[in-house]
């Protein structure tokens, strides 16, 4: 029996060595990667909350991670940002997750509930201050830009800016998400605000612009969920939404030249999406290995291949998307703490000004 166990142990050791050799045929992606991988292999898995595979190219991240790190399984779910924080809070005495991904406003909730812990991944120091927590309890992994997604079969003259949207030729043509119930809707308010000389301390110009837009009759409707399917079907002439949805529709879902993707010339807003290491998670080393992996230059480039903008400044975009994610210096990333504090005001003022409620 002892001989059999010894043989199994030896076989396990050889398997570990073989796995490491397979995973590290080249150089480390960062100093200490091999040692962290060995520790993660002993845990055997990482549990990643709210990383739905069809969103932001997470599926490609999963596949690349599993290829590089044999022996570390990756388990995920797709709860939604707010639900993820609720789940972490309910399981605080016996956490199930190792990492949690969400719209950055939900990251603030997670910090407030003390369900996440500090960890500085690769490239953390390069992140702008408004894209990370001062104690590294969350940090942005990518951001999404607000753009005009225009069905060119339905719209002859492509609007290039917010002022253009006020023209009578776009009557009954525009759809965007309700800021009272969606994060994207909130970001649209900031996009309009930045374009009209507002800032994170003064939201009035954005509200006034959207009120004017509604008064023209150009807004077809506001919606509470993404109208992506309706847009693909040709039911929406102009959708004010996220750039990545437009690029996905153009290059992956068959719209081709039937869509124009315009980042408005006067200005726009970007929404940071963040991730955290869960406090007392069951697999802390595997969790750190996963977070480091997606924050390397290679990991950031993989997000770009899913048409979302990397959070780390200066990352070289892969050749396959370099001509699609055009430079957009007119885009400002929102300051998430201020945006969260402004939400009640935006909800109230937008409803009154745009909907007369």
Verbal overview:
Helix content is 41%, strand content 18%. The longest helix has 22 residues. Strands 1, 2, 3, 4, 5, 6, 7, 8, 9, 10, 11 and 12 form a 12-stranded mixed beta sheet that branches. It contains 13 helices and 12 strands. It has 357 residues and is of the alpha/beta class.
Could you provide a short overview of the structure?
41% of the residues lie in helices and 18% in strands. The protein has helices at 2-23, 33-43, 58-68, 81-90, 104-112, 183-195, 204-215, 228-232, 243-251, 284-295, 297-304, 319-322, 336-355, and strands at residues 45-49, 73-76, 99-103, 116-117, 139-151, 174-177, 219-223, 238-242, 259-262, 268-278, 309-310, 331-333. Strand 1 (45-49), helix 3 (58-68) and strand 2 (73-76) form a beta-alpha-beta unit.
Total beta-strand segments: 12
Report how far apart the termini are: 78 Å
Q: Major sheet: size, sense and barrel closure?
A: 12 strands, mixed
Categorize the overall geometry.
Answer: globular
Return Rg in Å: 22 Å
What helical percentage do the residues reach?
40-55%
What is the N-to-C succession of helices and strands? Answer: HHEHEHEHEEEHHEHEHEEHHEHEH
Q: Compute the average pLDDT.
A: 92
From the helix content, strand content and strand pairing, which structural class follows? Answer: alpha/beta
Spans of at least 5 consecutive residues whose pLDDT stays below 50 are 1-21
**Strand-residue proportion:** 15-25%
């Amino acid at each position: 029996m002892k001989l059999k166990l010894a043989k199994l142990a030896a076989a396990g050791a050889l398997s570990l060595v073989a796995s490491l050799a397979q995973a590290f045929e080249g150089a480390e992606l960062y100093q200490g990667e091999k040692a962290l991988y060995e520790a993660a292999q002993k845990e055997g898995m990482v549990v990643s909350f709210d990383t739905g595979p069809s969103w932001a190219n997470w599926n490609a991240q999963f596949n690349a991670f599993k290829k590089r790190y044999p022996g570390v399984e990756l388990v995920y779910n797709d709860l939604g940002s707010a639900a993820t924080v609720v789940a972490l809070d309910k399981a605080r005495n016996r956490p199930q997750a190792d990492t949690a991904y969400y719209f950055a406003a939900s990251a603030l909730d997670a910090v407030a509930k003390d369900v996440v812990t500090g960890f500085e991944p690769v490239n953390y120091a390069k992140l702008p201050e408004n894209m990370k927590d001062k104690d590294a309890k969350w940090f942005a992994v990518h951001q999404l830009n607000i753009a005009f997604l225009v069905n060119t079969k339905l719209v002859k003259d492509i609007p290039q800016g917010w002022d253009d949207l006020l023209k009578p030729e776009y009557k009954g043509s525009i759809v965007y998400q309700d800021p009272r119930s969606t994060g994207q809707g909130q970001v649209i308010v900031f996009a309009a605000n930045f374009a009209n000389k507002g800032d994170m301390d003064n939201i009035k110009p954005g509200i006034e612009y959207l009120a004017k837009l509604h008064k023209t009759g150009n807004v077809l409707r506001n919606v509470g969920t993404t109208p992506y399917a309706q847009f693909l079907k040709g039911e929406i002439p102009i959708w004010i939404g996220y750039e990545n949805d437009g690029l996905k529709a153009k290059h992956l879902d068959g719209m081709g030249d039937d869509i124009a993707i315009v980042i408005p010339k006067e200005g726009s807003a970007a929404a940071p999406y963040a991730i955290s290491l869960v406090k007392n998670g069951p697999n802390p080393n595997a969790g750190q290995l996963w977070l480091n992996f997606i924050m390397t230059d290679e990991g950031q480039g993989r997000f770009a291949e899913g048409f979302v903008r990397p959070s780390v400044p200066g990352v070289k975009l892969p050749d396959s998307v370099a001509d699609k994610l055009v430079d957009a210096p007119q885009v400002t990333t929102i300051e998430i703490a201020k945006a969260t504090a402004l939400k009640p005001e935006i909800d109230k003022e937008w409803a009154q000004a745009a909907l007369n409620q």
